[in-house]
Design brief:
elongated, mainly alpha, about 90 residues, Uncharacterised_Rv0898c, 3 helices, DUF2630 family protein, about 75% helix
Length: about 90
Amino acid sequence: MADTEDANQEILDNITGLVGEERELRERSTRKLGLDNAERARLRSVEIQLDQCWDLLRQRRAKSEFGEDPGKARVRPASEVENYKS
């Protein structure tokens, strides 16, 4: 159980770091009226990584809830997590 909690916390810590970077890039875009190509690409990459992290965390929690091994959850490809419907 502790390993599961540690792994989930690691994912949450990663999410926290990515959210901070995303906020910084968005603030920078409004302060200087836009981002350069590299910054736009990085922002898109961060957005995708965030979606993948949240998806992985949801998978792990669902597996735990239903008595499955959360360690079997895997990061899904960006093409999959980016096309989820709300």
